[in-house]
Amino acid sequence: MNAIIIMIAKFTGYILEKMGRGSSMPGEVALRLNKNILKYFKLPKEIVFVTGSNGKSTIAHTLTKIYREAGIKVGHNNRGSNITPGITTCIIKNSNIFGKSKVDRFVLEIDERYVKEVLKYVHASYFIITNISRDQPPRQGHFEFIYDEIKKGIQSDTHLILNGDDPLVHKFAIGHTGKVNYFELDRTSFSKEEADIKYYDNLDVVYCPICSSKLKYSFIHYGGVGSYKCPNNHFEKPNELYMSKLEDDYFTIDNNKIMMPNKFLYNIYNLSACYITAVLSGVDKDSVVKSLNDLRFKRIEDINYKGKSYHFLLSKNENAVSFNQSIDFVTKTTDSIVVIGFERISRRYLERDLSWLYDVDFEALKDKNIKIICTGTKFAHAIATRLKYAELDFEICADSSKLIDFLDNYKEKNVYTVFCFELEKQIKLDLKERL
Amino acid sequence: MKIGYLYYDLLNLYGDNGNVKVLTYNLKQLNVPFELKLLTVGDDIDFNELDFVYMGFGTENNQKIVFNDLLKYKDDIKNYIESGKFFLATGNSIELFGKGFLELFDYETEYKKARFSSEVLVEFDKLEKPLIGLFNQIGITKGGNLFKMLRGPFDGMEGFNYKNFYATYIIGPILVRNPHFLEFMLKEITKKEIDLDLSLEYTAYNTFIENIDKDRKL
């Protein structure tokens, strides 16, 4: 029976592919016919899951690349669907009709809220957790709720690869009986030192998960990520084997030099997570380093128009970490204009709450000699209000279709856009049509 | 005047600190001298010296830590509220003053099985225009009297008011999103006419209201 279901699902996938549409339909079909279908597969021993609010796609893509370049056959849900039907689709595609895998390993990106559903049937040999941050409040509840949701799914013998600088992720190690390793970043010249940490820096976990004493931070990289310590020594940044160190345009890990594909600090975490997982799961170190240094994707795409360079910093709405990373990036540039805006908040739901803007550190743009513009028909004034309370100067171009002409008024040569997917697409299209 | 931002590090889930930013910024514009005190667990909170207290939204875990710390201040808080001083509580910190917690008031929290989240539109009888906000909670307050629900997940009254104690389940920067409510609060606190340029805030508010039916059925 299950063989027939898989045949039907595979056929559905085949038809859709012929029509040029990749989707999670095969998985949906299979799950509709047998909701426990995942139990049926004879999966390989090595299965890596990746979850967290930020960076899971980057990590899953990069790790897949490392494995493939080391000659390992990998199944990976790279079509963007990271919930149960998407993962089921990936497994169906990489198995024969009797459920036997055609690949050596799987690297599966998984949405935080689907961990417990999928891990009920699939054994994770490695589980990478990037971070858990304030993310999509109408959908995600809050970060402790997401923590609990992930925790419910974690199997006791899984080898956890955790962000040691994020206390909420580190917390998964408490009471875990399987192995644990951490990716960490040492203090950098950009670190915000203890004396400069403000009350609105919104450290998500500020109390020790064991004794509830306030954690002392000696520095933070961004958000609540940094070096923390419980005053009673229960809990602190692990400071273990795989400590990454930022140098000029590269970082070091395990005595290896890894070039940075772009200047985003969080990339060090992503690439370090890949390095550690790949090495621990048996890939030769030299091969891992070579793959990481060959990375060519996820660069910022620049477009030049009328003497200005447009740099697109994709920033996810309702995710303060994603915004903070972009703002942090902009503060390190010169001769710049930053445009902040969106035309809609989410593709997933219709709530138009902007509370999260107050969790973003726009204050970091103060005294930076960077011009600021707000855009978005429905939201420009709400964004401007937020900037007013950060005591910043700005201009408003509410109609985003007029943005490019509006920018003619400025002499600055670099335009950094802090946009969500749709507005970024719209402005790129607009620019390309003019070229 | 002294503003106490209570448990600023534990109750700050979704932009709650925006309420403090907007309050202090506008007091400065109004030339009202103030001092902002950031207070949390382990601090010795002296309610006698405070004139305005703000508490925001926290995770259930942090709410527990706060409740354990608040217990020793029960009488102080009671005297503070009775003396007519200002208190604004947003999000689930409303629960802390009702039954099952400090029991300063008679309202009760009924917990649902699952967390729910919803955009809301409420009516405040002292203001002509409605207030906008977001809910993200597990509990529902029974016996509220502050806002009348116009659109949202349930009907009836929401939030609680007694003298100058105001509590609502609405999360985030309610004072920013509702400039008329900010003006009302500032007027109550300073006992002065408020003359502020809140044109950005009003445009943002009006844009939201204009689009309320376009994007969705609330």
Helices and strands in order:
The complex is a heterodimer of chains A (435) and B (218).
Chain A: H1 2-18, H2 25-33, E1 46-51, H3 56-69, E2 74-76, H4 84-93, E3 105-109, H5 115-118, E4 126-129, H6 137-140, H7 143-153, E5 159-163, H8 167-170, E6 180-185, E7 192-193, E8 216-222, E9 225-229, E10 243-246, E11 250-253, E12 256-259, H9 266-280, H10 285-293, E13 302-305, E14 308-314, H11 320-331, E15 336-341, E16 371-375, H12 380-389, E17 395-397, H13 403-406, E18 414-419, H14 421-434
Parallel strand pairs in A: 1-3, 1-4, 2-3, 4-5, 5-6, 6-10, 14-18, 15-16, 15-18, 16-17
Antiparallel strand pairs in A: 7-8, 8-9, 10-11, 11-12, 13-14
Helix pairs in contact in A: 1-2, 2-4, 3-9, 3-10, 9-10
Chain B: E1 2-6, H1 17-29, E2 35-39, E3 52-55, H2 60-70, H3 74-82, E4 86-90, E5 108-124, E6 131-142, E7 147-151, E8 157-158, E9 160-162, E10 165-168, H4 174-177, H5 179-190, H6 199-210, H7 212-215
Parallel strand pairs in B: 1-2, 1-3, 3-4, 4-10
Antiparallel strand pairs in B: 5-6, 5-7, 7-8, 9-10
Please tell me about this protein's structure.
The complex is a heterodimer of chains A (435) and B (218). Chain A is α/β, with parallel strands linked by helices and 435 residues long. Chain A has helices at residues 2-18, 25-33, 56-69, 84-93, 115-118, 137-140, 143-153, 167-170, 266-280, 285-293, 320-331, 380-389, 403-406, 421-434, and strands at 46-51, 74-76, 105-109, 126-129, 159-163, 180-185, 192-193, 216-222, 225-229, 243-246, 250-253, 256-259, 302-305, 308-314, 336-341, 371-375, 395-397, 414-419. In chain A, a hairpin with a 2-residue loop joins β13 and β14. With 218 residues, chain B is an alpha/beta fold. Chain B is built from 7 helices and 10 strands. The radius of gyration of chain B is 17 Å and the shape is globular. The chains are: A alpha/beta (435), B alpha/beta (218). The interface between A and B is large, with 37 and 43 residues.
